[in-house]
Design goal:
338 residues; 31% helix
Length: 338
């Protein structure tokens, strides 16, 4: 049997493009060139625009390598690539974050083309990306989630302050990496916070702030998924914002999370319920808060980051699954599932 042809779909059009490129480079460098014929595929522009060469092999996270050359396709030729027998991949490894990659759009295109791909399908991707819809589903499935409201007009924001106790969390309904997120301490700040969130999406999500310890659970597998070791996130800043997520040393990570055995069991159960409620596949990451009154599910990420500071690779390593083997596992799951 020959090498498996893998297209690593990365870059994209969302605000998380730079993070996606780092994720894609990590995956390309982790894929064994003896087993995989892997190449980068960007839906927007050539990956060399930032001066970095991208190539498979090497096992690192974001290491630059000059050989062998990697095929790169801009958006205009994406469908052409899929239609060329010599270049059509056996599987697509989706490393796109945010809109037009994590929201079911690319998944739908690949379904139409009949190409297997890593991660969740169209519906699960769309539901998880839409925080308000996923939280409504959580409520229907008895998964604890903070009370919330979604708004499309900043003028309505002051009225929300009459019904919700402060502080509140305001963020775009469909966005990642904490873009447009604000912790509102005073009612007078609500309007500006909603306006900021609406710069990134058509709806802003306002939810109750849950004080406590933030944890995340990576859920890996197909029909019988497993929860990897829980990670406690302890940012040195006020909250886990973009800088805290992607600046080395800005956040402390504790594996396993510093919680009780009872809290751990409850968090693992909630993570599995959330993963299954949305219909996730491959891998997901469920973000939660551990508070005095229990565990609260915040959101689910269907294409978690795979950079040097990303959480899923950390959890997998703690479970004895190195980065390269994690990538192998996700490719296997994609082929089994589709």
């Amino acid at each position: 049997m020959g090498k498996l042809k893998v297209a690593v779909l990365m870059g994209g059009r969302s605000e998380e493009r730079d993070i996606s490129l780092k994720t894609g480079r990590g995956i390309l460098n982790a894929l064994d060139p003896a087993r995989y014929d892997a190449y980068a595929l960007d839906t927007v522009a050539e990956l060399k625009e930032d001066g970095a060469e991208v190539a498979p092999g090497g096992g690192g996270d974001t290491a630059s390598v000059s050989t062998p050359p990697v095929f790169v396709a801009p958006q205009r030729s994406l469908l052409e690539v899929m239609g060329r027998p010599a270049e059509r991949p056996d599987v697509v490894f989706i490393a796109l974050h945010g809109k037009y990659g994590e929201d079911g759009t690319v998944q739908g295109m690949l379904e139409l083309l009949g190409v297997p791909y890593t991660g969740s399908g169209v519906l699960a991707s769309a539901l998880a990306m839409n925080k308000a819809m996923s939280k409504r589903l959580f409520a229907a499935e008895d998964i604890p989630t903070p009370p919330f409201v979604a708004l499309d007009d900043p003028e309505k924001a002051p009225f929300v302050g009459n019904y919700f106790a402060l502080p509140l969390v305001v963020k775009p309904n469909q966005q990642g990496s904490s873009f447009g997120m604000t912790i509102v301490q005073h009612k007078s700040e609500l309007k500006a916070a909603v306006a900021k969130a609406l710069e990134f999406d058509r709806e802003a999500l306002i939810e109750k702030f849950i004080p406590g310890r933030e944890i995340t659970a990576a859920v890996l597998g197909g029909k019988d998924p497993q929860v990897l070791p829980l990670i406690e996130i302890a940012p040195k800043r006020n909250f886990y914002d973009f800088e805290a997520k992607y600046t080395p040393g800005a956040t402390e990570f504790h594996i396993p999370a510093r919680i009780t055995a009872e809290e751990r069991r409850a968090a693992e159960e909630i993570a599995l319920k959330a993963h299954r409620a949305l219909g996730c596949a491959g891998v997901s990451r469920v973000d939660m808060m551990v508070a005095d009154d229990g565990i609260w599910a915040l959101e689910v990420n269907t294409i978690p980051g795979m950079t040097a500071t990303s959480l899923v690779p950390k959890a997998a390593a703690a479970a004895g699954l190195p980065y390269a083997q994690l990538c192998d596992r996700l490719i296997q799951l994609a082929l089994e599932d589709r």
